[in-house]
Amino acid sequence: MSSGSAGAPMPKASPMHQFRIQVLDGAGQVFYGVTINLYARDAYLGGIEESDGEATIRYPASLGPVTVLIEADGYEAQTTIGADRSSHTFSLPTSRQRVTGGKREARCADGTSGQPCVVCAVGNSTVRICA
Description:
By secondary structure, this protein is mainly β. It has strands at residues 16-24, 34-40, 43-51, 54-60, 66-72, 75-81, 87-91, 106-108, 113-114, 117-122, 125-130.
C-alpha cells in the first residue's frame, strides 16, 4: 500500500465509471437540440443544452447511480445509470433536422463550461461531461 509523506496510508481512489447517452428521433437518427441534464443523489451535476443528441460522462463510482433527464420539443424522459451499464439510448417519437451552429458546450452545476468537455468539481471528486 502507498503511503503519504507522514507515513499514513493514502486513501483509495474510487473507481471511475463512464457511460454514453444517445438520443434518437422517430426515424432512428440522432436528435439534435436536446437538453441533457445529469443528477447524482438528487444533486445537479451538470449537463448540455442544445446538444447534438449525444453525451459522455465519466464519474467516480462512489457517487452512486446517475440520473439522466432529457428534454426536447415538449418531451421529457429519464433513466438512472448504475455501474452495470455503459450506455443508454433514448428514442423520441418526433423528428428533428440537424441544427447548425450548435456550441456543443458542456456545463457544471457551478456554471463552469467547456467545449466539448468540462471537468466539474463534485465534493472531493471530479466529473467529466462531454457533449
